[in-house]
Write a structure and sequence with these properties.
Helix content is 34%, strand content 15%. The protein has helices at residues 3-10, 12-21, 54-60, 86-92, 99-103, 128-140, 161-166, 209-222, 243-246, 252-268, 289-292, 318-335, 351-354, 366-382, 413-422; strands spanning 73-78, 145-153, 156-158, 177-182, 187-188, 201-203, 231-232, 235-242, 275-281, 296-298, 315-317, 340-341, 343-345, 360-362, 389-393.
């Protein structure tokens, strides 16, 4: 059976409904009929012009250099919303997790593979036993580090239970390093929302010098001294998602002073110098990152088009998105004053959060992702940025459809690509 025929048989209401009827998938929702699909602009299934081929890979990046003997550090983003967290339970009810909008998602066009079903079921990542299984799998398939999204809003924390109750209590935790990305953005109700603009703010992010230092003090007490905390050149890595939001509160001079105090706190605790990383939102300040106090940068996901850049309710083939990603690496690195590390998105589809107003990446397949991973290798090999680090987004972003964990459509095939490319 040809690939296009195979994926067509998997899509739509019949395939997902059949899986649910078999009793192997928990909480399978009823599916909409063919006549109830949302009006979403079509992408021709199997369109070779949209596919990320070997030829397109060679056109996008120089693949003639040798990678022999080169070692790469592989860092996967981890979005820890797959366990009950007391703050969220206060709002949505006892036992709520972000699995709920995933379970309640619906296919929006024929061939749309939603809901997505985790192959392991809807497990609790804050349970040390499940954390051990995740750690074992990540290490086995070639991942060195989890960059864990960390939520601190003026002392209010949520989703940290995955790290503190699960990962750090796992018996095999030494097999995987971890670091934090402070997801310092407003927290909105997208469970679901009609659109980005209509999502109500649940918890605003209010920056101040005092609160930033409190956040870092918490990290010094609980995370940075851990023996498997990730370091670059011996320096603990602390990533920040949204620089631009910080600059809405602080002037550039004020932010420099805040970062200097942050470094003094870390050094004063006997942990050496801190490695600050800009993770995503810093547009317009690329050339200033070094002077502001950052040591490196990456782009956490280049497909997040529901949040701007592409029409709401549209679809973009993975091949087009992959070429866009490689170009964004080049353009961003050329503007930066600090080393840049590439990130490889698995996919993008946050329709469980935004329904038909989401802009979705379609036709993703493991072989195309493997080519993107190879592109990142060649990019990192030719870059002056050292060590050679490649980011993956993401380990478990189920409600945005970029997931390395096995599901009931692709199984372990995305993890297999990571292991093939990085030689484990």
């Amino acid at each position: 059976m040809q690939r296009r025929q195979f994926f067509k048989t998997l899509g739509g209401s019949a395939a997902v409904g059949a899986l649910g009827a078999g009793g192997i998938l928990p909480s399978s929702p009823a599916q909409a009929g063919e006549n109830n699909f949302a009006e979403v602009p079509a992408v021709n299934p199997g369109d070779l012009e949209a596919y990320f081929t070997e030829e397109k890979l060679r056109r996008a990046i120089d693949t003639t250099g040798s990678l022999s003997g080169m070692k790469f550090e592989v860092v996967a983003y981890n979005f820890p919303s797959w366990h009950p967290s007391p703050y969220m339970e206060k709002i949505f009810g006892k036992g709520w997790t972000e699995y709920e909008p995933l379970k309640n998602s619906r296919p929006l066009y024929p061939g749309h593979l939603f809901p997505k079903y985790p192959l392991w079921g809807y497990f609790n990542e804050a349970d040390p036993a499940w954390a051990e299984r995740e750690i074992e799998t990540a290490a086995e398939f070639g991942i060195d580090v989890w960059m864990i999204d960390w939520y601190w809003h003026s002392g209010t924390m949520f989703y940290h239970e995955q790290l503190e109750d699960g990962f750090l209590k796992a018996r095999n935790r030494s097999k995987l390093k971890f670091a934090l990305m402070w997801a310092n953005h407003h927290w909105n109700n997208v469970y679901p929302a009609r659109s980005v603009g209509e999502a109500a703010t649940l918890l605003p992010q209010l920056h101040s010098e005092e609160d930033t230092l409190r956040a870092v003090d918490y990290c010094i007490e609980h995370y940075f001294p851990q023996p498997n905390y990730w370091r670059i050149d011996g320096r603990p890595v602390f990533a920040i998602f949204d620089l631009n939001l910080l600059l809405e509160t602080f002037s550039k001079d004020q932010l420099r002073r805040v970062f200097e105090k942050v470094r003094e706190r870390v050094a004063g605790a006997g942990l050496g110098d801190l490695h600050l990383q800009a993770s995503h939102v810093y547009g317009g300040h690329e050339a200033e990152l070094k002077s502001l106090g950052f040591d490196s940068a990456t782009l956490y996901h280049t497909f997040g088009w529901t949040y701007g850049g592409k029409p709401a309710g549209g679809r973009t083939p993975y091949g087009e998105a992959a070429v866009h990603t490689i170009e964004s690496w080049k353009e961003t690195a050329a503007k930066l004053s600090v080393p840049f590390f590439p990130d490889c998105p698995v996919g993008w589809d946050d329709s469980p959060r935004f329904g038909a107003s989401a802009h979705m990446v379609t036709q993703r397949t493991p072989d195309q992702y493997e080519r993107l991973l190879r592109a990142a290798q060649f990019f990192a090999a030719a870059s002056e940025a050292k060590p050679r680090i490649v980011f993956l987004s993401a380990w478990n972003e189920w409600t945005e459809d970029h997931v390395l964990l096995p599901d009931t459509v692709f199984g372990y095939s995305y993890l297999d690509t990571v292991r093939r490319v990085f030689g484990r």
